[in-house]
């Protein structure tokens, strides 16, 4: 039936699990096939006469509905206008002619008053794109002058498949003498002969989305109204500039950054070796707004729910991943990206969203957390919700709602693999979005954490948030949505458990600073990194931070975790010198052991280094050692640890990440020592040097230089180059690059937009990933 929706779910295992099954490409269509007409029985004929509305005849019409958003492409035919009867003298007075609309001008030019005042002039296209809670102007021409005493007029806006006045999806806009700024209303501001100009106001809680506009007029009290449908659509967005909108952000510089900036920085690596890459959000590019509205249509959310940003962002986090609803991106952590694009090769949301929309909702292959976050930022900013990508280093993944990261050992202090389901990712990227939270106690508005990476289900769906960052900081994990999961990511303690002889477990050690380090986002107005850890948690080991942890733990599955504390007088930590080891060289770290007691201490440290996916899943161990340590009272020792290049060169996975694990027992006190430190091997950056003058319409070039850091040959090297307003994204197939060889690529392009722009490039091959670069280019107008 027209308006029916199909929900197709995939049983593929994606998320953090290594096995990946691609969702089948599906085009949703519903077709009603003409059936053979059957003879109607006498009882049915009688019932149809008594209640015709409940017993309508079968229609033989064939429908073919494709769930795809498209702008209106041409004028809608106007209804046939009946010719008024002429009086006996053969003349018809101008005021007696039936009032009708000849044309409607939505004043939707990118440079016009509406789109400039509504901060939508950067969007591609000539539709009327406006923000709710703010007045906009339209003009129309009538077949005769409007007579306020005898003529009636109102506007109607409709969105969704089944618009209803009661749901806010069928809006009736009356003409009023004075705008009250509290609801849908319109006022005639200018009248010149047959031409009218109207100011139209929308409420700050209006449903966002794609609307069709109709003007209805009538001139006699009992006559049927005459309808004129606008040939252009009206697109209504959230409004961070409107104080009454729940997404209102009161800082103009932050609005420029978190709503209007179409490029950004996403951070990765480890806390001691933070890497940064430029990401093109491209929310104003051609087809992106259309794709975002299509995404809302593909979801199961009723159009009436699109007025609440809590509902919208929750649905967006579900639809960005393809885990259970054929969303935008297929997650893949297996290392095999056959049939798709390596996640590290993406540097823009534009191609991803365009591909998803143009294929009628076929999920795009492949993504990992920073790709999910980049696309989420694009969609939220495009819809008018302030948002940013956020990276948490040493990000915990709590799988049992204990609000701790648990590590289990047997009686001999050997790890029990089948119980160690919790993990700590080197880094994880999610999003913050800004909104008030009237559904929560006061004080919980502002930044909210949302996460589109499919990790755990929330109410049966792979989505996460919005979780109040204020609630996370205070340990108020009982507040919705998904606050316990995000709290564990940033502030859970790492608890080590040892199995007793009777099969029970006892806590033998805890790390209070193991997770949630250097939480990072791009700074407002610059490409610098801003550390926002203080927004998510109190300073480590402060009384406030410990209270928050213990408060949260009481709502978890192990509420008695903090009943007792163990004595600790020996410390062990791992330090990384400078920017850390480089790819292609020996990896050198320092192990520091400190005795804080007035007595001597002895221990043997068992070290193991393993290759690791950035999600915290270990691939395999590549080196093990035993290190005897003897400490005098209050002595500190520094031990150099080395991993030769030859031992890791053929072992690495995507992020070139490794984890060094240390454990031991102090002979005198039986204190358990434990430390896990993740680090990465730094990859080189691409050098991008602009050549020539940057002027709109004038050809210029840029030289991209790369030096292979490895002694071996890189196979099947591919460059991806893109610059918003400079040139479209494209691939350059390079082929093989010899060991330690230097490669130079010159790109020629013609800038199409003035202003500050960024040319972004990335390199992808099997042996080396996360190689990228950016050049800032200021384009002058002609």
UniProtKB/TrEMBL annotation:
Keyword DNA damage: no
Record-annotated active site: 369, 428, 451
Domain Transglutaminase-like, first and last residues per copy: 361-454
Cofactor note: Binds 1 Ca(2+) ion per subunit.
Alphabetical list of SUPFAM superfamilies matching this protein: Cysteine proteinases, E set domains, Transglutaminase, two C-terminal domains
BP-aspect Gene Ontology terms: keratinization; nervous system development
Entry's Gene Ontology cellular component terms: membrane
Binding, Ca(2+): 491, 493, 540, 545
E.C. code: 2.3.2.13
Broad class of where this protein is predominantly found: membrane
Keywords: Acyltransferase, Calcium, Keratinization, Lipoprotein, Membrane, Metal-binding, Palmitate, Phosphoprotein, Transferase
Co-factor requirement: Ca(2+)
Membrane topology of this protein: Lipid-anchor
GO molecular function, one term: metal ion binding
Family, similarity comment: Belongs to the transglutaminase superfamily. Transglutaminase family.
Subunit structure: Interacts with PLAAT4.
Protein name: Protein-glutamine gamma-glutamyltransferase K
Source organism of this protein record: Austrofundulus limnaeus (Annual killifish)
Lineage start: Eukaryota, Metazoa, Chordata, Craniata, Vertebrata
